[in-house]
Structures are given as C-alpha cells and as structure tokens.
C-alpha cells in the first residue's frame, strides 16, 4: 500500500513464516513508550507480521555529568541506533525527530513522521513553589533557578525573564523530576509538552509556554521512523504512519536547520503551522546566549498547486522522493509540496543570515564553550 491513500493491505503471511521486523530504540522510559506506540500502530495495519523491540543506550544517554551542548557532537542520541540499522541488526529505528541532525548517514532515510504532539515547552514547578501559589515563571522571585539543558530555551527565557538564573540539568524525565522534587537546586524545570503527554504526566505542568514566546526545537513533538534507504519493503511498511501536515512542517523546519547550521549547540528555534491545507507558515529565530541579540523572521508559502504544473501521471504515483532526509511516496504527497516546504525553510534561514544570524550564533557558541559547566 502507498502511504496516505486511506486503504491498508493486510500482508498475507502465516504465523510460522511471518516477516519479523526489529525496531531499535533508546532504552529510556519515554523512548520505549514512543516505540511501543509505533509498534502497536504498525500491527493494527499489518497483524500478520511480528515486531521485536531492541532497546539500547546511546552516547547521549551515557553522558550525565556534562552539558550536551559542550560536547560538539551532533548525533548523541542516534549514532548507536543508526550503526545498528546500517549493520542490519535492526530494520527500523524510532527517534524523537528533534534529536536527529539535518543530514543523516549515507544509506539511511526517515520513512515516516507521525502526527505531531504539541511542540511547545512547559514549566514544571518545584512542589514548594506550587504550595506558595507560584506556577508561572513570572511568579518566581529574582535569582530563582530554572533547570533546562536547552540553549534555545535559556536564550529566549533569559530575554523574557532577566531576573531568573538558568542551570543545566541532565537525565531522563524521571531523573529530572527527582532532581527537582528532592532538592532545592531548582525552583522549576522546563520540559517538552510532548514527552510529558506521552508519559501521562501533564498534571505536573504548571505553565505552558506559547511558541510565540519561546520558539520550539526543530522537529519537537514528532516521531521519526528511520530505515535503510534501499529497504523498499520496510519503507512501504512504515509509511502508513506518515502525517501530511507534520511532514510539510518538519521538512520546512529541517531545511531551515540545514541552511542555518548549528544544531543543539546554538540557540535557534522555530514555529510552523498549516492553515486550512493551503498555507504553510514558518517562523525562525537565532539568539545569543542571553537573548540580547536576536533575529526572527516569519514567512508563508501557498500550498495551492493549481497553475504550478498540475498533478502527476497515474504511473508516477508509486514513485518516492526524499526531502530534508524524509522519504514519501508521490501518492501520499505531491513532490511540489515538498519543494515548497523546503524552499520556505531555506528562505527563512537565508533571511536570518542576511540579518547577521551567523555572527550571533558564533558568539553564542563561543560563549557557551567558555562558560563553566554547572550541570546537575
């Protein structure tokens, strides 16, 4: 079946010779929950196959005493998984799209991007502050300490709340909650709404940060299903998880990231949206470490294909193309739409570069590397 046509073909196999797919994933609770969701969705459409989950630790999971932005690495949470994929030890890898660099290793592709959870960030207050009625960042006293490992959040929130202090915090969600709840090191921490939602922990959210106030990370809230680029059977198998709006938005975001450069080692963020299936919008921003220097730009693009070359011939519908390392079939999404999304992301990044984004991000990177590492 081609993704997105609304019809799902059951693979005609018997239990004794059922195709077995192996899914590689990080072994954190959140990663396992995300991977089990992917497994369940695939089995709904193909109940005759077998799927095995193969958990493993990545370099990023092992570094717990250092800010990841100081390591200089771009694939801290993906390298071991992608090595296993390239070596044939697994057939599929599930990642949070925000953890994936703009360029993948040769031979790999993202074959599905799931419908996005809310991509915004959230404040989780220390229980003591909640008892005192302090639920928002604006409620905190001067000098209060906010925990986050994201330079993007630090830059934007320092700009909005200069009276607060920011400190790096590492570990999975459960570890961060423990560090928040059992000590006085942090007055609150900042986390992604999507992760809290998937772990049924939204009751801990005391404030949601609107993306207009704090631009989110490229790909935040979306899951990426990665395969070998030449494994056409598996690409077709997982492609049913694709969400058209999320694909268009994240193609634009990843094209923005590739053009601007930097990744998680510099403060940059985005906000994207699709209006009535006819307009794609993207806001991109680049900041220095304290947010005193910032360039932000917003642009939109029409998704109306009338007068832009028409529809593909019937014989072309089962062909595939790749944009921003995301592979889709022509039946699922018109390739011109992918070009529009990619051009939008590049145009926003180029506009920021014309406004001086490169020097701002270079300053941010240098400042971050020189700053003492106060990670907890």
Describe the 3D structure.
By secondary structure, the chain is α/β, with parallel strands linked by helices. The protein is built from eleven helices and 15 strands. Strands 2-1-3-10-4 form a five-stranded mixed sheet, sandwiched between helices. α9 (244-260) runs parallel beside α10 (335-354). The longest helix is centred in the C-terminal third of the chain and has 20 residues, at 335-354. The chain is globular. The relative contact order is 0.16.
- The rounded Rg comes to 21 Å
**Largest pleated sheet:** 5 strands, mixed
Helix content: 25-40%
- Secondary structure tally, helices: 11
Instruction: State the secondary-structure class.
Output: alpha/beta
Spatial strand arrangement across the major sheet: 2-1-3-10-4
Q: Tally of extended strands?
A: 15
H/E topology pattern: EHEHHEEEHEHEHEHEEHHEEEEEHH
What's the end-to-end separation, in Å? Answer: 48 Å
Shape: globular
Main features:
disordered N terminus, alpha/beta, 15 strands, five-stranded mixed β-sheet
Please give a quick description of this structure.
The chain is 31% helix and 22% strand. It has 376 residues and is α/β, with parallel strands linked by helices.
SSE topology sketch:
Elements: E1 20-26, H1 29-45, E2 50-56, H2 59-62, H3 79-86, E3 92-96, E4 108-113, E5 121-125, H4 127-131, E6 145-147, H5 151-160, E7 165-167, H6 173-181, E8 188-192, H7 193-198, E9 207-209, E10 223-228, H8 232-238, H9 244-260, E11 268-275, E12 279-287, E13 294-302, E14 320-323, E15 326-329, H10 335-354, H11 357-370
Helix pairs in contact: 9-10
